Amino acid sequence: MSINKLLEDNPSFHSWDSGEIANFGVSDKVVKYIYSKLKSGFSTIETGSGKSTFAFLTAGCNHIAISPNELEEERIRKYCQENNIESKFKFICGSSTEELPHLINEINHFDLIFIDGAHRYPFAEIDYHYTEKKLRVGGYLVLDDVHLPSVRNLFLFLKKEKNWELETIIDHTAFFIKIAEEVIIDDWQNQGINKNFKKFESLKHYIKLTIKRFLRIQ
Questions:
Q1: Containing domain of residue 172, as a range?
Q2: Alpha-carbon torsion 111, 116, 118, 122, what sign?
Q3: Of residues 26 and 191, which shows the higher confidence score?
Q4: Which of 9, 65, 192, 201 makes a 20 to 30 Å CA pair with 104?
């Protein structure tokens, strides 16, 4: 089965709290772009599941999906069965904040991480915290719904970090490439998000010293 056939079918794997079927999936453009970055045998993970899951399955990835809704797994596997899609992937039913701390120690590396689970603060940041160290240099971190305030903080942080490169944004989904491992210097000192703060504090300190010297001269 091709990605195009999946997008034409536009199946719904999600549901509202009321039980009504829904489709919260990312856009077709995002699914296609994720698929374009994958190779057979890649180690991949997503928080959340849906149409995006089939990009990983169709590409032949060793994939993990984490979602608290067990019905999503049932619907995805049923769709796979009906369309002769290989469905060998690990579905973890639970909250990523509770499952990732245990799971991550079993992982050697990831080639692509897709953060698209719970969007309320600070879930995206927690998902990032537990997975990014396992992402190989050259791998992709894909962050969905970067226009939401509860997700945008992480997006702005990554944009300023030296070891991340923003490749593109498609329909509120950002694609970052990990270009180097993080270099930690004196805890927060080397982080891009703190760069202007350091400059401001240095300038403030210089002004204070200058004023004190001037007053002593007087």
A1: 3-183
A2: positive
A3: 26
A4: 192
Q: What is the CA radius of gyration of the chain?
A: 21
- C-alpha of 201 from chain center: 32
**Around Cβ 64, how many Cβ atoms within 10 Å?**
22
Task: Determine how many CB atoms are found less than 10 A away from the CB of residue 114.
Answer: 30
Look up residue 183 and give its DSSP letter.
Answer: P
Residue 102: which residues within 8 A CB-CB, separation 6 or more? none
Q: Are residues 112 and 139 in the same domain?
A: yes
**Shared domain check, 44 and 142:** yes
Spatial separation of the C-alpha atoms in residues 41 and 175, rounded to whole Å: 20
Per the CB < 8 A criterion, the answer to whether 124 and 102 are in contact is: no
Residue type, 84: N
210 three-class SS: helix
pTM above 0.90, yes or no: no
For residues 149 and 192, state if they share a domain: no
Torsion sign over Cα 193, 115, 66, 21 = positive
The pLDDT score that the predictor gives to residue 69 is 85
Closest CA to 33 of 175, 147, 151: 175
pLDDT tens-place string over residues 59-114: 999 999 999 988 888 888 888 888 888 778 999 999 999 999 999 999 999 999 99
